[in-house]
Amino acid sequence: MPSCSTSPSRDGGLVIDGKKVKVELPTCEEAKKNRVIVLVNGQYLHTVFGSGAEPFIENGWTMIPLKALADAFGFEVGWEQSQEKITLKKDNKNIIMHIGKSEMLVDGKNVNLGKAAPTIKNNVTFLPVRQLAEILGVKVDWNGNTRTATFTDSK
To answer: Domain coordinates of the chain in residue numbers?
Structure first.
């Protein structure tokens, strides 16, 4: 793991949707402790640090932003605000999930996500990716030392 160096200022800024947003950057030690790296078919999952859309771990599940998941796995995404309903379509798979609910429908059959459920954090929708990957036949590996989740499409 790379060593840490300190910088004189931890303040930074980003431009999100045309607005400058002040970002409080963590120390290197904090970043190493909390970061989650996600690789999909050998490519890093790109999220902008400080945007609120960084992957994180909750109850042992890697949660990634819906947009990043859709891009990485080639999903067509539908969203119904009134029901907080997410629809994911890929090939012959049809997955329906709801924010805060640990059950999803996969091709009309109930699948329980255990303690994980789609959630909204920092105005970003996050999904528990491991169960979705397994349903789609994607191999999933976790390296606890580097905090890296690796997803490899078997197709």
So the answer is: 56-155
One pLDDT digit (tens) per residue for the chain, 155 residues: 444 443 333 445 566 667 776 666 666 666 566 677 777 778 777 665 555 577 877 777 788 888 777 777 788 999 999 999 999 898 888 989 999 998 989 999 998 877 788 898 888 888 887 777 777 778 888 888 888 888 887 65
Q: What is the pTM of this model?
A: 0.66
Q: Could you give the count of Cα atoms lying within 13 Å of 33 in the half-sphere of its Cβ? A: 5
Domain 56-155 = CATH 3.40.50.300: no
Query: Half-sphere exposure of 136 toward its Cβ, with a 13 Å CA cutoff?
Result: 26
